[in-house]
């Protein structure tokens, strides 16, 4: 087995996921670049390697059972275990998303990737994570999934969103349930929000850089053994549910 810490980042070919991979790689970790498109994945791996990161490509579509199973097989073969899983891949599902007019396909797309995709990948990787000394799971959520923030007068709540924001609320709830089930293990699982970052996801309207957005994922990926589990955090600390 490799002595380096082994991480997998889903949706790591661009945006915040790429910067999470770069940040974990800068720690000297071996980083699996999970991405569904061969060319985009290989381009990201090459760029990370050129920056000195021990990066390797992991073909991975989080909505596809066979792809996720094959990804777990690839990591098992390469490293024999997984120390850190960052469930970063996400989609809005398509805009606009007003609840009164939303297309059910938009709802399904957001939930399939942002929630079921996370469950699919996490469960496939759990046998490998259980072999780690200090396993960590980070779910990239969003403060738009905070019902407290959405209902706080004057708070920045983003656009009306019937699919994307509730999919992150759903993801937060699922994160809590994982933490409950895994409470007696050494696995820490938390949700993090990167803040509003300029990426493809929002037409580059975000005000933070993807690198700034990656910081919370890196913090949650490197928690000490007595760190929190089942929580929701951003750079400022705890985010209300
Ligand atoms: N940007 C923000 O302001 C912001 C704020 C809060 C939370 N977040 C969250 O942060 C995470 C990263 O977002 P981002 O802003 O970096 O978005 P992005 O630039 O659009 O990147 C999304 C990544 O997810 C991948 N992806 C989508 N569907 C996938 C699938 N089925 N299988 C595998 N990979 C898939 C994309 O791959 P392709 O290139 O193949 O499409 C891409 O690599 C998301 O979970 C997002 O919800 C972002």
UniProtKB/TrEMBL annotation:
Q: What is an example of a Pfam family matching this protein?
A: adh_short
**Protein keywords:** NADP, Oxidoreductase
Similarity field: Belongs to the short-chain dehydrogenases/reductases (SDR) family.
CDD domains (UniProt xref) = carb_red_PTCR-like_SDR_c
Entries under InterPro entries matching the protein: CBR1-like (IPR045313), NAD(P)-bd_dom_sf (IPR036291), SDR_fam (IPR002347)
Q: What is this protein called?
A: Dehydrogenase
NADP as a keyword? yes
């Amino acid at each position: 087995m490799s002595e380096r810490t082994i991480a997998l980042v889903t949706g790591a070919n661009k945006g915040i996921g790429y910067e999470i991979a770069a940040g974990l790689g800068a720690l000297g970790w071996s980083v699996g670049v999970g991405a569904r498109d061969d060319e985009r994945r290989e381009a990201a791996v090459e760029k990370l390697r050129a920056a000195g990161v021990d990066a390797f490509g992991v073909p991975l579509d989080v909505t596809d059972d066979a792809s996720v199973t094959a990804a777990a097989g690839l990591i098992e073969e390469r490293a024999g275990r997984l120390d850190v899983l960052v469930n970063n891949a996400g989609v809005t599902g398509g805009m606009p998303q007003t609840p009164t007019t939303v297309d059910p396909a938009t709802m399904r797309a957001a939930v399939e990737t942002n929630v079921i995709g996370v469950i699919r990948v996490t469960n496939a990787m759990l046998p490998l994570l259980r072999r780690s000394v200090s396993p960590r799971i980070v779910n990239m959520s969003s403060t738009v999934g905070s019902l407290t923030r959405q209902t706080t007068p004057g708070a920045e709540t983003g656009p009306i969103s019937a699919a994307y924001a509730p999919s992150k609320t759903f993801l937060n709830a699922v994160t809590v349930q994982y933490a409950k089930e895994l409470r007696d293990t050494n696995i820490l699982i938390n949700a993090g929000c990167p803040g509003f970052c300029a990426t493809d996801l929002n037409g580059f309207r975000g005000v933070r850089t993807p690198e700034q957005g990656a910081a919370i994922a890196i913090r949650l990926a490197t928690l000490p053994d007595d760190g929190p589990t089942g929580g929701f955090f951003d750079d400022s600390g705890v985010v209300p549910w």
